[in-house]
# Entry
Amino acid sequence: MALALALLLTSVDAAAREREELAIRTVLLSEHPSDSMPTLFVKGKVVTVLRFETPVDPTRTRMLAWEGRFEPLLASGKQVSFLLKPASEGQRSAVDQQVNVFEDPRGYDAMYSTLMDSLKQRRVLEDENQRLREEERSADHALATLLAQGNLKHTPFVRRQGWRLKEEGADILVEVLSSKTLPKVAVLFTLTNRDAKKPWRMMEARLSTVSGGSSRAFALRMQQEQIAPGATGRIAVVADDSAFQSPRGLEQLALELFRSDGLSQAYLVLEQRFIRE
# Structure
């Protein structure tokens, strides 16, 4: 297959969010009217390469209305349409690093590439199922689930501190919780979506050391996957005392919450004194 298009997007709205998995996948073209346009999931400063099954003619290949904004184009004159979306807006977080495009789904290369995609997806699902099974047995995830459901009284946690934040598109109540019987700390976000049209969705939460940015393990649960305009939902985070430990001694931890477009919605610093205070 010959290299056809190298798409280099230059938007940097979430330049610091480099954790997305880069993906290689297959697209089978179809002319059936009921089939939707193929979607490419892209990200600022990440190249998305399209590979076609036959050599292409550089002199007859161009990207309509995007002249001069991409790498030199290397196809046979056939028009191929794609819908570009930020990776954070899909049900997947992976950026399309390489997309193998085939016109004939019955060809050997197309069938082989599709098979490899299926096997890769199966492995991903198996790993995810294993992770979910382990989480079901995790005490921290069980506690986070109770907090996200509003069942604070059924946990050993009590409220220690709280802040009300007015962020872009959201009002957030942040509560830090601790327990006298468990060496754990919890944070409960109660978020009201002030956007009149769009639901609020979370991209990720991060827990890391303030000094060096080292990631720390934590459990996270949401009351619902998205918060409708005008509605309120809860997000709970639970971390063990060991998250504060390092070879240098006790660490301060930074907890940050990002919505689906990469915008930071809440940031706070946690100290070990919150535990058993």
Q: What stands out?
A: The longest helix spans residues 108-136.
